[in-house]
Every structure is written in structure tokens, then in C-alpha cells.
């Protein structure tokens, strides 16, 4: 057992008293003593590190492995956070105020060590302490495995938001699922994506603290029984078929050098009866642990593939599991035992991060009615004040619906409550819009086609105090198109909060070269007040500063080249324009438009139409995963890799064109790639991207954007100026008009020679070893479907890329534009996003 420090003893005693009640003497001096962190000295750090290594890992330094050393270092840093974490919790219990319960199925945190060192201002001390021990901090950084708790932008956004809330000293608990296997590790086999399990916990999770004694029962299936009580009211009892237990794991979320540490609480599912000894003794070993297997499936893997009925059911189980655990945890463990639930709206606002947690609405209703004995009317009045909903999409297929048959079988009591909510709601609709039964059908929480289903976005909108989009354009389209009937009924309910990213991770930590230049130029303080980077604007006119800025970009290019060579065996050419497109592989994001541009450049050079001397040397970096069941996206990945293989080995374009597609793009790679980029590709079809956050990260790190007027691109362009943004493509109204008139992609193919030659070259099998069938699915879809108007925007995109090449030829002007991108995008800090949520939606206090 590791030696227990006095501070740890105090922490354990204090936590035990809070969670289990006064089972220890409340006057015990140890229980009342102060919680203190280890000393902030190199010697103190070395002692704590060696203690964790010896007693935590059970090895001396001389025989320790790299993982032993990393685990000991992580726990040492965690020890510095723990005292602050408990002090934060104690302060908030002593002065309770309304808090935020952030409900999100994803949190893409990235590596935690550097973030914790930055937050605690221990980076220099830790580096020196490791040198004293004969170790290199950089080597230990590389040993950390990134937590696989998210798919993409939704999870990265949630991670940014909880970081900002801690930095702002806002009372918040983030709630989610502790997936045993995160988003898959992507590998390429013969150019095709192959998914490999991401067992990110295999070497241990030093940043989490388990509390198995704080288990939460979660029920499924069964039926509902009714009885009339003495007061004449009907009472309902849910009699479930089976149950699991939720075990909570706390992850500390430190604020930036402010002594505040909030909590991310993740839930793991285990069986209520994990092992049946009688069955085991009878020889049926598999059946003896079957209940454990079924239960643990719930938190086994991030977002099970849901193209099968079994996958859909497991995904719904996941969603209900984590919100049931979270709401129970808040009511039973976070709040005082004498809480009057009628005061709940004064104590909590649950933020629904997309539709995944929306089942929490009927769950809170169930608890208030069945456990706290409120009437439906009382429970509904309370619930409508306790939720707010963020919609992250404009794609109808991304708005979740659940078959009524599945809901009735898996969550019968909740389905009853949803029916009641819908009945009350539709009565309001009929009262406000009498005689408009078509509107009633459109707005109903229960949809009829193609099967009876629960529309989760409708339920969230009906039950939430506010509904927000995540960029100005997105919020407008949400009001005008996606949820138009609801915004007409409740215009005051809809608002906008433009997304943001944390400057701690995505500037200060990801780009130390630029961070030093900023600090040397405008001083300290900008990391927690990103609007201060506006002070850099005047330096864009300074030739000496522009030269330093170019040195920063060159250093970042050297760094990413080393990373990709070590990580993937990719040798990046030097002195190229670095053109980057990294995001989930989805047709609306239009990776195919980027690929057609590459093929056009290539075809022009090999055909002799383009003089190679006039072509700007360009390296294009893709990073993208396709959902396992998304066939078209996988075919596009294969085609990108096929084109890369040919172009990268064709001597006719060497020194002019190169494609890199490193597998398994994640936060860790993003932190190295984004600071090196010259050009940021944000080329989704207008009206399809909700916001984007990658576009913000690139601009903040000095890349210029080529993009459509879509999502947060609109706001980026307004802030940086048209001269510092390469705009192309149709606007959202123009897209809608073209689709309404009847879009024929073949007309664009036939009328544009460059487009025709690029598509014909792909279709000929040139990039697929002569196999014309290999690309037929992608080419056929482009020519006869092209849902996202790739061909319609092709020429405008080529014209904008010509502008890019002309601009890049003047490095002084390009540097000026890049500096202005940094200086004018401080608005996109997640700290500003959180202030908007606090002021417009949550109405909570900070810093108390």
C-alpha cells in the first residue's frame, strides 16, 4: 500500500463524512483539519513522484518501466489537484448556488498530463524533477494514451466547455459514460479503413478516481402497475425485468492557474448479480457470468454501430443509463438530503448536449412523480425549468428518433410519461393554432412515419427553457427551417451561442512557439482572456514581427514533420504550402471536393496543361475517420489513399504535390498539426455544418481559411475580413434554390472540361491499378446524385484555390493576413461561449 500523506488522510475523511454522513466523530481534529497540497518545489515533487513510484506502482526507479514512470508522474500531478478539488467542493457545499449538470455522451479530452501541468503551473518544476531522477518529461508525455471518450467535434466541444467552466470558477459537473473501448483506432489495409478496438484503459487510468460504494441502480424493461391510493390519486410502480448498477468515476477538471478544480463524472455499468455460484457449480460457466456480460456491454464501447435492431437497443440503453445515473447522483448525493424538490430549478440546470441525453427529461419526471409523489402537473412545471437543449445539427437524419415499440419494451414507464407530455403539449398547440391539424402532426413528439417513433429533438424543445444553435447561421436555420413551428410558437425560447475552443489546450499547450511570441509581444494574461490577442493587430504591419511569425510557422512545420515520420512513416516535403483538411469523413463536409481539386492539379501537370514551374508546391494533409457502417465515407477514404499512392510516387509531380493521410487522427495529433497549417479547408455545403470548431482552431493558430459561408465560417470571415479569408461557393439560399429547381450534376460534368477530365481520370482506373470498378460507387454518386453539390461548387473552389496560390506567393502579405487571423479571432474562446450560456440560458453565479 502507498504511504498515506496527512493531506490524503484529511481528504479521505472529509469525503467520507460528506458522502456517508457523520459516521466519524465530527469533532475529530483530523476530520476538521485543512486540506493542503504537496509543496511546489522540485524537491517536494521528486519526493512525491518517488513515493508514487515505490508505493503506488510497487517498483524502485531503477527497475521501473516507462509506463510505471508515467503512472507515478500522473498520480503525483493528480495529488497536487486533489486538495484543490476537495477545497472547491467544500466551498460550494458551504455556499450552495445553482449549478450546471452538463450531460454529454462524448468528451474528447485529449492527453491530460500537459493540461494538468499547465493548469497547476507545474510544468517547469515537473521537468526539472524528472531530470533529477534521470528521466525526460517528453518521453513520459508520449507514454500517455488519449482517453477514447468521443467521436469528434461534439466531444471536443464538451471538453473545451468544462475546461472553461473550471477556469471561470463556475459550479459544474460534467456527466458522461466511461467507455471501456473508445472510438476505434483507425488503420489502413490496402488503402481501406479497418477499425481496431481502442482499449485506452489497458495500461491503467491514473486520472480517474472510482467510487464503487456510490453505486446507482438503473432499471430496464418490465411493466407498470397501478393502484389507487387513499387520497384517490393513481400511483404507478415500474416493475423492471432487469437492472444494472452504475459505478461513478471522477476525473478532475482544473481551471487555469486559479485553484479551482471541477468534476467530470463518468459512469461504468456493472451487473447487480455478477456471478451465479450455483450455475457455476453446475458446470454452466458461461451462464454464470452472463448477467455481467450483458450489463457491461452498456459502457463497453463508444456508440455501438446502430444499423441493426440490437445496436439501436444498446445505444438507447447507453443513453438512458448515463442520464439516469447522473440525475440520481445529483438528487441523492450532490444535494442535501433535506432538499425540497420543488426548489430544484433554483439548484440545477441540466444542459442537453445534443439529443443523446434527452431521455433524461422523462426520467426526471418519473422520479418526481413516482419517488417524490408529485402530481404530473407539479413535476412538469419543475422539469420545464431544469433543462436546456443545444442542437448541433441541421441534417434531419441526425435528429434522433426512437421507435415507440423499442421505448415501450425497454422503458415502459418513460413512454407513458412521454405520451402524457405530448398530450399536454398538443393541447397547447391546438389552443394557439386552432384548426391547424397539419401543424399538430408536424409538431407532435410522436411521429407516425415511417414508423411510430419518439422525436427526441421535439421532446427536448418542448421541455427546455432555452434551445440554442451553435453559430449565427445555424441558429437562424434552426429557427427558420429545422424547428420552425416551435420557434413560431415560442420565439423567446430560441437563442444562439456560437461555439468556442479552449485557448489553454489549442493555443497555449498546442503551440508553445506562437504562445511565447504572443506573450513576449503583449504580455501575460491572454491565456484566460483571449480577446487580448486583438493587441497583436498593429504588429501585423511590422516586418520584424512578421518574420518572427514565419519562424514560428516554420518551427511548427518541422515539428509535425518529425511527428508524422515517427508516428506514421510519412516524410513530408519541405517548403510546401501546408493545406489541411481534418474532420469526420462525411459527404456534407465534402472531402471529395478537395480530392477533385488535387486530381485537377495532378492531371494538369501530367497532361502538360499546367507548367510545373507555375504551381505552388503543396502538401495536402487529410485526417478523417468514417463511421463503421458508413459505406460511402469508407469508399471516399479508399479513393483518397489510392490517389495519394499514385501521386506521391509519380516523378512528374515530385516537389509540387504530395498527399498525407495519417491514420487515426485524434486530439493529440491535432495539437501538432493545426499549428503547422498554412491553409484550413472548411468547405462544407452551405447550410449543412452547424458550426465547426476546427475552423476556429486553425484561425487562432495562424492558418488562413478557404471556405463556404457555412457554420462559424460566417463569423470568422466577418471578424478577420474578406481580404484575409478565401470565400467561395453558393450561399444557403442559393443551395436551396438550386435543389428546388432540380439539380443535375451531369450538366456540370459535361460543361466543365477540367472537371470532366478529373472525373474521367479517376473513372479510368488510373489511381486504382486499372480497376475501374474500385471507384465506381463514388463516381456514380457524384454524377447521378451529388446530394451535397460538389460538382456545382467545383469551379468556384478552383478559382478560390488560384487566389490562394497568388496570395501565398507574397509571403509578407500572407504573414500579415495570418497574423490578423490570430489577432481577430479571440472571440472564439470557449470562455466567451460559457459567458454566453451563463448570461442567456443558465443564469448561474461564478466565483462564489
From TrEMBL:
<comment type="function">
    <text>Phosphorylase is an important allosteric enzyme in carbohydrate metabolism. Enzymes from different sources differ in their regulatory mechanisms and in their natural substrates. However, all known phosphorylases share catalytic and structural properties.</text>
</comment>
<dbReference type="GO" id="GO:0005737">
    <property type="term" value="C:cytoplasm"/>
</dbReference>
<comment type="function">
    <text>Allosteric enzyme that catalyzes the rate-limiting step in glycogen catabolism, the phosphorolytic cleavage of glycogen to produce glucose-1-phosphate, and plays a central role in maintaining cellular and organismal glucose homeostasis.</text>
</comment>
<keyword id="KW-0663">Pyridoxal phosphate</keyword>
<dbReference type="GO" id="GO:0005980">
    <property type="term" value="P:glycogen catabolic process"/>
</dbReference>
<dbReference type="GO" id="GO:0030170">
    <property type="term" value="F:pyridoxal phosphate binding"/>
</dbReference>
<dbReference type="GO" id="GO:0008184">
    <property type="term" value="F:glycogen phosphorylase activity"/>
</dbReference>
<protein>
    <recommendedName>
        <fullName>Alpha-1,4 glucan phosphorylase</fullName>
        <ecNumber>2.4.1.1</ecNumber>
    </recommendedName>
</protein>
<dbReference type="InterPro" id="IPR000811">
    <property type="entry name" value="Glyco_trans_35"/>
</dbReference>
<keyword id="KW-0328">Glycosyltransferase</keyword>
<dbReference type="InterPro" id="IPR011833">
    <property type="entry name" value="Glycg_phsphrylas"/>
</dbReference>
<dbReference type="Pfam" id="PF00343">
    <property type="entry name" value="Phosphorylase"/>
</dbReference>
<keyword id="KW-0119">Carbohydrate metabolism</keyword>
<comment type="similarity">
    <text>Belongs to the glycogen phosphorylase family.</text>
</comment>
<feature type="modified residue" description="N6-(pyridoxal phosphate)lysine">
    <location>
        <position position="697"/>
    </location>
</feature>
<dbReference type="InterPro" id="IPR035090">
    <property type="entry name" value="Pyridoxal_P_attach_site"/>
</dbReference>
<keyword id="KW-0808">Transferase</keyword>
